[in-house]
Amino acid sequence: MTETRRKRILSGMRSTGRLHLGNFVGALENWVKMQGEYENFHLVADWHVLTTDAESVREILPNTLEMVRDWLAAGIDPAASPMFRQSQIKEHAELHLIFSMLITQARLERNPTLKEQIRDLRDKLKARELDEPQEGEVSDAGLITYGHLGYPVLQAADILLYKGDVVPVGEDQLPHVEITREIARRFNRYYGDVFLEPEPHVLAETKFSRLPGPDGRRMSKSLGNTIYLSDSEEETGRRIMSMFTDPQKVRKHDPGRPEICNVFTYHEKFNPEEAPQIEKDCRSGALGCVACKKNCTAKLNAYLRPMRERRAQYDDRRVLEVLADGETRARAVATETMREVHEAMRVG
Ligand code: SF4
């Protein structure tokens, strides 16, 4: 009887430090859910950080440790799902180099996410110009590095090195998966069948995918409106109590509109059993915002408590042990893939 292997998923994040509730709802929660169904490989994309923050490398390791601590806190089982740093497995660099010969500059310039990167770079440049005036207008070509252009090529190497069958992505990342598939096709056509074309698994947009921060805008580190998984219960309470609600509900017994209230979105996500009653009581004016926020704080803290307890079990030494173990397992797969690549190409 032939044993069928479970489908493999490669998912990763850039080393950005502590994760917030928006990161959890938008990605990490799905990773946890997919653990039973797929074989998961979780990549810390620490080289990818260099494309936008090449000058601040000192933060990469501490940010990596904080982020992986949150992965573990959320419930990723390191025994089942290897977690590893891209920079510790040099095969990523070799495969990236080979792949960079299989795609044209014009194709990469058509990649829609490049435009976003250029926009972000211009914002950064503008912020810097406030301190030190720059001379003249800088063209797009003068702004982007070789690494920016090749970002999706390195991503293709990340995915194909582990022969990922499925890549979980948001809609905006679909063009990168398409580039990965094109590179896999071209490699196979030139040298023989080594790579599968991975399928994108588009993470369904739900009303929680873009979880609002306390100010009502999408939760984001750059906007300073985050609730971190690792915040204390008191800090979480302060953030919830500062949340925007329905501006028409001024007094306790004023009828409210839960559909425009952030606190209610949090109840729906983190307190779904009580949400229908809260909705009713808000509309009728039976429930006041202060009591509603206190209840929301209690429920959110109860939801996060097991994560915070798990997080406390992982100091830097233990996180580094988890990474070292994941890197050994990931390296074994990467080395085998590169052996196939060398054999197919008769180079290397
Ligand atoms: S009672 Fe709750 S759901 Fe209604 S407006 Fe106030 S905080 Fe929002």
What is the CATH class name of the largest domain?
Alpha Beta
Structural class: mainly alpha
Beta-strand fraction estimate = 5-15%
Strand order of the largest sheet: 1-2-3
Would you give the CATH topology of the largest domain? Rossmann fold
At the fourth CATH level, what is the homologous superfamily of the largest domain? HUPs
The major β-sheet equals: 3 strands, parallel
Oligomer: single chain
Rounded to an integer, what's the Rg over CA atoms?
23 Å
Tell me the number of helical segments per DSSP (H or I, 4 or more residues long).
Answer: 15
Task: Write down the overall mean pLDDT.
Answer: 91
Total beta strand runs: 5
Order of helices and strands: EHEHHEHHHHHHEHEHHHHH
How many domain units? 2
* Distinct small-molecule ligands in the complex: iron/sulfur cluster
- CATH architectural category of the largest domain: 3-Layer(aba) Sandwich
Helix content: 40-55%
Q: Spans of 5+ residues with little confidence (pLDDT < 50)?
A: none
Describe the structure in your own words.
The structure is a single chain. It is built from 15 helices and five strands. It is mostly helical and about 350 residues long. It folds into two domains: about 230 residues, HUPs (Rossmann fold), CATH 3.40.50; about 80 residues, Tyrosyl-Transfer RNA Synthetase (Orthogonal Bundle). A three-stranded parallel beta sheet has the order 1-2-3. A two-stranded parallel ribbon has the order 4-5. Helix 3 packs across helix 14, helix 4 crosses helix 9 and helix 11 runs antiparallel to helix 14. The longest helix is centred in the C-terminal third of the chain and has 30 residues. It starts with 7 loop residues before the first strand and ends with a helix. The model has no long low-confidence stretch (mean pLDDT about 90). Iron/sulfur cluster binds next to helix 12 and helix 14. Iron/sulfur cluster (SF4) binds next to helix 12 and helix 14.
